[in-house]
Amino acid sequence: MRATLHLAPGKDKAVMRRHPWIFSGAVRKIVGEPQEGDMVDVVAADGKWLAVGHYQSDSIICKVLSFDTQQVDETFFRERLQSAIAYRERLGFFGNKKDEFGVVDNSQFVRADTGVSLYDSQLANVFRLIHAEGDFLPGLVCDWYNGVLVMQAHSVGMHRLFPMLTELFVDLLSKHGIKSVFDKSSATVPGGCEDRYIWGDEPEEWEICEQGNRLLINFYEGQKTGFFVDQRENRNLVASLAEGQRVLNCFGYTGGFSLAALRGGASYVETVDISKKAIELCNRNVTLNFGDGASHRGVVADVLKYLEEVDNQFNLIILDPPAFAKNHRSLQQGLKGYRNINQRAMEKIRPGGLLLTFSCSQAVSNDEFKTVCFTAAANAHKQVRIVRQLPHAMDHPVSIYHPEGEYLKGLLLEIE
Fold first, then answer.
1. Active site (catalytic) residues
2. pLDDT tens per residue across span 36-55
3. What is the CATH number of the domain that holds 50?
4. SS3 state of residue 405
5. Chain segment 358-378, per-residue pLDDT in tens
6. Which of 39, 85, 45 is nearest to 64 (CA)?
């Protein structure tokens, strides 16, 4: 029999609004002895059943899978996965989108400047397939890499389900040519696990394509699931802005933004990252696409220190740092970090230059990030225009009940 979380009086409002997180402070008592990852029921103070989800010994004590009185079984997960896959199929992520008459129709996803489809499978074959709460599967992230499915669990309960989920994915994705399934959960599951292939072929390195750029992916060593899939549409924007520009890509990792800039006609691109392995792979990616003579330089350095040495050399700067505020306890320190790097970039960019700046910290709100950029501009004594707000890509949907899922904040700024 499942354990039950009994909420304190008045603590059921968020659940009634279908928010998928139950916080430990809302729980009055626990009936039973649930272990990490067990399925538990959630009931109101008056005993009314509210939800079922995975138990975890954390401030988020339960991640809700269903608010309906249905069996959370293999059929349940098959339907959820089918829904997520169908959403990506409708948008053309697996190939050209067809209308109800079977005619290819990608017009709504075509870039006006180049006429290129954002989701043509010949130009892009990597995207997010399951976006946790955004696909109503909290604790599960899955990315598609040209036939390799990378699964990442953010809860013990979801990780326990990987054998069943793998079987379902292999069945549901067979028509799309699934080749392998990789478990990339060592850094995200409490207690840890081994990153490894759990089905199919086991390539040490894999090649993907994004907007015509070829990239080499190492699933064992790569950050996140191997690549920063969420920035695809913002990389497309960089390509459209880069012609003739000198571009500095800070926290550049393996060079996604740098390749986009070079593809867009940048006169020179510099990629800076503190990781030597990341810069080595970035240089390989540049050579793979543009040869040994590409106008690109990879630099292993601390970004903030490196920006001290740059002065009016670049008129397009990209700041895409790791999460400086991983939780609310580190929020103030994180905001300080964002302010410092933005101020430094604003001070060093050429007058009239464009700055693309991002925060992937879920703990940082849109308003807080704008305030950080306002403070940085004021401290740098610069006139700054907000040209565009930059969210994550369309394969990262956000549940209307879970606004926290809108973790990526970005701004395109003009610095006078």
1. 360
2. 999 999 999 999 999 999 99
3. 2.30.130.10
4. helix
5. 999 888 889 999 999 999 999
6. 39
